[in-house]
Amino acid sequence: MTEDTLPPYLGPQRVLSGIQPSGALHLGNYLGALKKFVALQDQGPLLFVADLHAITVWQEPQQLAAQTREIAAAYIASGLDPMKASIFPQSAVPAHAELAWIFNCVARLGWLDRMTQFKEKSGAHKERASVGLYTYPVLQAADILIYKATHVPVGEDQKQHLELTRDVAQKFNHDFDAPGFFPLPEPLIAGPGARVMSLRDGRAKMSKSDPSDNSRLNLMDEADAIVQKIKKAKTDPEPLPETLAELKGRPEAENLVGIYAALADQSAEQVLAQFAGKGFGTFKPALAEVAVATLAPIGVRMRALMDDPVEIDRVLKQGAERANAIAEPILKEVKAKVGYWSARS
Length: 345
Ligand code: AQP
What we know:
Elements: E1 16-19, H1 27-39, E2 46-49, H2 51-54, H3 61-77, E3 86-89, H4 95-104, H5 109-113, H6 116-122, H7 131-145, E4 151-153, H8 159-175, E5 186-188, H9 223-232, H10 251-264, H11 268-275, H12 280-306, H13 309-338
Parallel strand pairs: 1-2, 2-3, 4-5
Helix pairs in contact: 3-12, 4-7, 4-13, 7-8, 9-12, 10-11, 10-12
Bound molecules: adenosine-5'-tetraphosphate.
């Protein structure tokens, strides 16, 4: 299954995903998420800006609204049409948080204890992490299930959270005697851009929070910066091999080949067929060319969009209206199943 050929499914399909307004977007966010959203836009995806998730780590209140507009600009600059995709801030749809509370009472501590992202993000001092960071995957389950979404395009790092969403859906359906009420959503992860690694360390994920800006290509980087970062990217002295198997144990080389493949819409095998026997002195300029060709126009469009915050706000408001219209009746049904007095008809 690839992201643009959805599997046969008997119920109504609904595609949903989100990105946190927690810093500058990078190539990993583009290849792992944004590019997939564009491929799926004829499905009318619900795409939120995850501002509730963002505050699980400190965000400057004066900057959060601007960061939210920046993610909306990235959605549109990547090729999403707001007439097809509903783009909205998560906090503008209160049902996400309300369902998350109910799911906090469905999910089990043991499930959350297994989440590797919490362990990575909380670091050595987990007792100082916010409670929100710990229950983040429960909110993510609510984000998806409040729309009964069936397909969730995400990067590889979100796989475990999607499994937890399926567990929450299954337990809710069982506990409240509601078979099939929530669908078990499918992650759409396949493809060479599913796990883009740091340009400085082929074993670490490319990430917004990496202190080294040279570790990532930002969507807003100018062409010169993209070329320089690729030139400085860590590599090894060997030429590129003929087969994928020979790339094993060479994480930086494997990453750069994967990035080229994802940007050029080729398989890694096709990239190796073209560059086998060539060194990085030849490969890096070719990679820089495809990276600039994709990213530089997105950066230009983002800057232009961010000069028009009124238009971005219009898109976000319209998206929130559509999202609320879907979420509110589902939340009402959930409350009735739980037995709340407030849901009596
Ligand atoms: N390196 C990556 N490769 C492929 N996909 C990636 N994604 C993130 N990094 C990579 C995908 O981008 C989407 C949005 O991610 P997010 O902003 O909601 O959260 P994140 O995964 O925490 O992103 P970062 O950049 O790694 O942020 P920090 O540094 O704050 O942790 C998701 O679909 C994600 O899979």
